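Write out the 3D structure for:
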Amino acid sequence: MGKQRASWLSPPEVPQAPLPWKRVTVINIAGFLDFQAELVAGSLSSAGCTAHVAELTLPVLDVLRNNPSEFRAVNIARVLDLPENHRALVEELRLLLGSGEAMILPACLGLEENTLPALQQALNVPVKLLPTLPPSVPGMRLHNALRRRFQSLGGLIMPGDTVTGAQLERGSINALFTKNHREVPLRTRHVILASGSFFSGGLEADRQRVFEPIFGLDVEVPEDRATWSKPDFFTPQPWLQFGLKVNPRLQPCHQGEHTQNLYAIGSVLGGFDPIQQGCGAGVSMLTALFVAEQILVAAEACHEPA
């Protein structure tokens, strides 16, 4: 904790090294256990930046503070984002800023898009946020932004529904069936499978086999059952690299034949260890981008909407 980490993409409110300031105030929220301001300050100091730690005690947070299980980043943000709490927040942070040229807080505000810009304008210094343990405020804000964008383009989200099967003809899926819609088919030109691995039910296993439960797709698994796992719990486990057999376009196989309009992305794919290699999020994002490009190219070639 408190160390710098490499990142492919970061929200603009997350501080990025090297910091352009010589003096930074790191804010800790009294009673908040998911952020260690001293560790952050220590890391900044070792990088040549003078870091001062201060504690925010804002009384409006006392109700949450009295219940440690509720004193989490998202709940704090719902309080601090309220317009009626803006003035008190600004006044206390202004007192805590001291000689700092910038301020770093745990990401416990900003579910509403205007909160952080208004805070920076009032304090007249850059305010940066460090993500906390999941669910994180920046992650939720990004999720909401992506959902709004998807829906604005005509996308439909069906919360709580589950795909139970598909109609496969001549190597293509022309209909999906879900738990809530039962016999009513959902027609589509392209299908993207992002069901995850074992932890989310995208792959399942018994003592004899590993299988993909929705479409019955082929899974890359060693034949020798004894090689699936290792006795030492802390050793990289081979089963974490199990996943679907796909071609270079990330189209999975069904009974040895590649599907024409079905693509797989994320951890349902095999060949990598998301825990040992720390690449789970990267694989998910890049395979999603790659598949989106494949669909757009295919649609353009057929002169049809994606």
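The first helix runs from residue 37 to 46.
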